Amino acid sequence: MIEVPTPVHIDFRRSGGIAGIDMTASVDSRDLPDEHAGVAADLLSGGDNLRQGDSPGVPDGFTYEVNVSDGSRSQQYQWSGPQVPAAVRPLLDDLGKRAQPASPA
User: Name one Pfam family in it (predicted).
Assistant: First the structure.
């Protein structure tokens, strides 16, 4: 079991795709499976191995934005679909299942 000492708040946005519908979710790490909460904690720590990859984006592909914070620290990430690090994909899949269409601006 991965220990997550401080709850991490996660704001997620998936944009792009053929339909162009932005999907958002706002989740506390305590509501995630332990392995996904551990990835959120790693993101908050600013792990260099979780930064953007070298792959170019694809037409009509998704872009993912993730903001993580614990009240005193925060980190922001953005990836296009092929750039998402393998370690982060399961977390993004989980957040995508929880996401709802974004409110119009």
Answer: Emfourin
